[in-house]
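Fold this sequence, please.
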Amino acid sequence: MAGWSKAEKLYLAVLIDDSLGQQRRQPVWSDLTSVLRRQAGHDYISVAYARNGNAMLAQDSQRS
């Protein structure tokens, strides 16, 4: 068992594999956007793209 527990804040990092191409990412893009926008205002969310073995940070912010 992983030992998960509920905390007051969520720290979430999303890594998007840029090598998949637009056609493979598009079907889930609106779902991902919806999930991220529904997070609480005090959560921290980072979004990065994986490109050639490196993570390129696209957005790193606290929801407000």
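The two ends are 33 Å apart (CA to CA). Residues 11-30+41-62 form one domain.
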